[in-house]
Design brief:
Blueprint lengths: L1 E2 L2 E2 L7 E5 L6 E6 L3 H20 L2 H17 L1 H12 L3 H21 L6 E3 L6 E9 L2 E5 L7 H13 L2 E5 L5 H13 L7 E3 L5 H10 L3 E7 L2 H13 L3 E5 L4 E5 L5 H12 L10 E7 L3 H13 L19 H16 L3 E4 L18 E4 L6 H4 L6 E7 L2 H9 L3 E2 L1 E5 L3 H10 L4 E4 L14 E2 L2 E2 L4 H4 L4 E9 L1
Parallel strand pairs: 7-8, 7-10, 8-9, 10-11, 12-13, 12-18, 13-16, 15-16, 18-19
Antiparallel strand pairs: 1-2, 3-4, 5-6, 6-22, 11-21, 14-15, 17-20
The structure holds adenosine-5'-diphosphate (ADP).
Length: 475
């Protein structure tokens, strides 16, 4: 753990093992922190707050710029640590490190643009002056699927705004968090500005984060169930909250779309990170007129994907995170099969060539998925493309919106009017139109409905870490 500028073991030297999901082997032990460590980290962040808050935006920006440069310099090492503990192919890990670094440089720049306002008053003797102040100590909880970019997407804006931070990374991927903190340490961040508490059991840390009065904001990325529980507790104590939660993205391919282009796009975005992404398409609506061409291209491309350890050349599909994830994916696939879906490809755990040691599931294509199936409602978080054929374009928008999630949606069409109507009608925070990567440090990322609260990245992202302060001056 990293508390007040020192690397620390847990009290009583408790530790927990980090597992390589491709082999099931232990990589190494990591400090197992509890409530006491979370409390000291929060106190350290509280102590460090006044000086950090009062530093100029230019000074804070310079630290972030240094961290950005160091992160890029260490790209290869960071990616290797990530591949080992998270499983994603090395190239994907490298891409993620660059994406993570983007948030540091973006918010280093945004730090200098936290503008205020002067507002005219109805009273001749009055002036209104509006400024923005950092919320204070931020508690951050991050997931294992994007172990580095979810850290910088929170810490970048928090630090730029003048907040100090305590982070609890996911128990599956603490090693990437530790290496990321070495970057912050070497960038020269003052002690206490960023603190790291690793733990096998997140519950006591979550309790401290939501109950300690020194914490002014909770930022969380993870499952909807945990997010709602933590947001409820934090809000009960009047802490600011932002949450980026689950999704169930529709991917709509209209009759006029190029089915080959759409299938290529679907393959890239669906199997990214082995389907373990909150913006992963979960219901793929394809117009019946182009269904055969779409399925043929998709099956051909997915069939050519190679599963294996992330360090192996040519591997494009890594393992799932753990045994429970394999069981969940398989349950959805079996349920779909039992309810009449056709398994075009995959549909089973992979056990050959030593893959039985890890948590591998075959890239799977299901056709004829209907609303009666589990996969139509539950987030899959695995390598399964669930195709829902449709005929009526007027109905597809209602079907796509028929979910309590609202994070990402995708549309393929060549018709500008239809593209615009779907963009406007889809109740999702992010809509990709003939575009499978509608995410960037420059663009707001976040969901509607049960997919979360607030936006990350972009010019909006820093506002989540700022309070608005009104000054009324009588002259
Ligand atoms: P997933 O199902 O994708 O693992 P989770 O929501 O369980 O998603 O995990 C996301 C993050 O939330 C992780 O850092 C995890 O440790 C943390 N987390 C899970 N349960 C709790 C809890 N009760 N209190 C605080 N943090 C939690």
């Amino acid at each position: 753990m990293y508390i007040n500028g020192n690397w620390a073991a847990a009290t009583a030297d408790a530790s927990f093992d980090v597992i390589n999901p491709a082999t099931g082997q232990v990589i190494k032990g990591v400090a197992d922190g509890g409530r006491a460590e979370a409390r000291s980290a929060i106190e350290a962040a509280h102590e460090a707050l006044p000086a950090w808050r009062e530093a100029t935006a230019y000074q804070r920006s310079a630290f972030l710029m240094r961290a950005h440069a160091l992160m890029l310099e260490r790209q290869e090492d960071l990616a290797r640590v990530m591949t080992e503990e998270q499983g994603k192919p090395l190239r994907a890990a490298q891409t993620e490190v660059r994406y993570a670094a983007d948030f540091l440089v973006w918010f280093a720049e945004e730090a200098k643009r936290v503008y205020g306002e002067i507002i005219p008053s109805a009273r001749a003797d009055q002036r209104f002056l509006i400024t923005h102040r950092p919320v204070g100590v931020v508690a951050a909880i991050t997931p294992w699927n994007y172990p580095i970019s979810m850290i910088t997407r929170k810490l970048g804006p928090a630090l730029a705004a003048g907040c100090t931070v305590v982070l609890k990374p996911a128990e599956a991927t603490p090693l990437t968090a530790i290496e990321t903190y070495r970057v912050f340490e070497d960038a020269g961040l003052p002690p206490g500005v960023v603190n790291l508490v690793t733990a096998a059991d997140p519950k006591p840390i979550g309790e401290e984060f939501t109950e300690n009065p020194l914490v002014r904001k909770l930022t969380f990325t993870g499952s909807t169930a945990v997010g709602k529980m933590l947001a409820g507790r934090a809000a009960g104590n009047m802490k600011r909250v932002s949450c980026e939660l689950g999704g169930h993205a529709p991917f709509i391919v209209l009759e006029d779309a190029d089915p080959v282009h759409a299938a290529k796009g679907l393959q890239l975005v669906k199997f990214l990170n082995t389907g373990q992404a909150c913006i992963s398409p979960n219901r793929i609506y394809v117009h019946r007129a182009i269904l055969d061409d779409f399925v043929e291209t998709l099956v051909g491309r997915v069939g050519a994907m190679k599963a294996g350890g992330g360090f192996e050349k040519g591997v494009t599909i890594g393992p799932l995170v753990n045994e429970a994830a394999v069981a969940k994916v398989d349950k959805q696939v079996q349920d779909a099969r039992d309810h009449g879906a056709e398994v075009m490809l995959g549909g089973r755990r992979l056990t050959e060539d030593g893959l039985d040691q890890g948590y591998f599931y075959a890239p799977t294509v299901l056709n004829g998925v209907t609303s009666e199936m589990l996969i139509y409602r539950e987030e899959t978080f695995g390598p399964v493309a669930a195709i829902v054929p449709f005929e009526d374009e007027d109905e597809v928008l209602a079907m796509a919106n028929d979910t309590h999630y609202g994070l990402a949606a995708y549309v393929y069409t060549q018709n500008l009017g239809k593209a615009m109507r779907l963009y406007e009608g889809l109740e999702f925070g992010i809509v990709g139109v003939n575009d499978i990567n509608p995410a960037s440090a420059a663009a707001p990322f976040g969901g509607m409905k049960d997919s979360g609260l607030g936006r990350e990245g972009s010019r909006e992202g820093i506002m989540e870490y700022l309070e608005t302060k009104t000054g009324g001056f009588s002259i």
